[in-house]
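Lecture 7, part 2: worked example. A protein chain together with calcium ion.
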Amino acid sequence: MSVAAAVILAAGKGTRMKSDLVKVLHQLAGRPLLGWPLAAAREAGAGRIVVVAGHQFDRVQQAYSTDADIVFALQEEQLGTGHAVSCSLPQLEGLHGAVLILCGDTPLLTGTTLRRLVQEHAVSSAAVTVLTARLDMPFGYGRIVRDADGRVRRIVEQRDATPEEQAITEVNSGIYCMDLAFLRAHIGRLGSENAQNEYYLTDLVGIAVAEHAGCGAVVADDPEEIMGVNDREQLAYASGLLRRRINRQLMLSGVSLVDPDKTYIDAEVKIGADSIIWPGCVLRGVTTIGCRCILESNVQIDGCSIVDDVHVKTGSVLSGSRVAEHASIGPMAHLRPGSVLGSHVKIGNFVETKKIVMGEGSKASHLTYLGDAEIGSEVNIGCGTITCNYDGVKKHRTVIGDGVFVGSDVQLVAPVTVGAGALIAAGTTVTRDVPADSLALSRTPQVNKEGWCLKKKAND
Ligand code: UD1
Ligand code: CA
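Predicted complex, written out as structure tokens:
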């Protein structure tokens, strides 16, 4: 059983976030808030997703502009959840069957639970199936009013509920599976005669019952799944739970997290088996890490592809880079975007790289800046080497051939090319190309003045 589409309500501002950014675009565990229910809807098989946006419509649309399965509906004024869904109807034209209705601010909802909802909807043939949860503290939620036989009769909002109804602990998640034909036929009947003067989507439940179209319910196994995020405290809480899920999944798949409570891994990160991640690591963006890698403590990786058997030592920061097998990075190394490192490369402490290609087995072990450079294989870059790539206006390239030995404290003033097999003597400032297999040496000849210090002391 599948659904034709999902509608995600995300037009609200999120006042309690106290933010210039609309609530559904706040990030948690590597996705915007909206991205979580969206992923769950996809998992449940929704082929088309209609996002109802209002506040900062353009920013929300921009955030998902490349997703072909997402269309947007504008709800200019937030007149209630019923009104929001009616705004999505034009985008559902031509579709038949069932539609999922979700909230953009419930990041903990799983695809598994949504599939259960869809399944139950299909077998019961009710017009509406609502996802509910039992909460010890139901305050604020709509309550599920059932009859003596346990059948759902209607949903009453907190502010419209009698004291008896307020005692009900089964609450509305705001997540439903609905028959599209029923939705189209009856959504126009919603009124706004209630405590909030809003068009309540929840009133469709009462309508379904009155029309004998049927309303079923699925109780969420874990009430936390329906938790909405309204402020930054809830955002942090939900982030923590999502991170725990991500970490658990990784550990089950064979990744060792030395201290999972202190390891921060985003949703789109993939890690191979037998990798070991030490505490304080932050792995973000679309990042892939191979098998048997070691990430020592406090390593930050964002948008990188790292293959097998790579060792990243403590305190290193890697972004937008690619690292081949058996490479060793750090401690305290900084790979900036566009760094492409070959197998068995060694990048040591206090080395910064940017837009470089470094061939197999090459090493820069200490205190070095390599930017806009093409470095061959088996190259040794001595301590304190600097590619002087920027003249204040433009960036220039440095090319270093295979097997070159660059001594310590060398400046390579780009654009410059060093031929394969050359040797650059320590302390050299390279301003002209160096032919292959040659020695380049530029030093002010040393002068030793014997006894000079003794004479100076005597004169002082
Ligand atoms: C709604 C339900 C309530 C349920 C709760 C679960 C109604 C009337 N009530 O209440 O039974 O327990 O969710 O969290 O539906 N939205 C729009 N446009 C609008 C109004 C809301 O897009 O005009 C969006 C919001 O951005 C949010 C979602 O719909 O993502 C829920 O809206 P919210 O105002 O939080 O509903 P509640 O009052 O919490
Ligand atoms: Ca809410």
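The chain is about 20% helix and 30% strand. The radius of gyration is 31 Å. Keep this in mind for problem set question 3.
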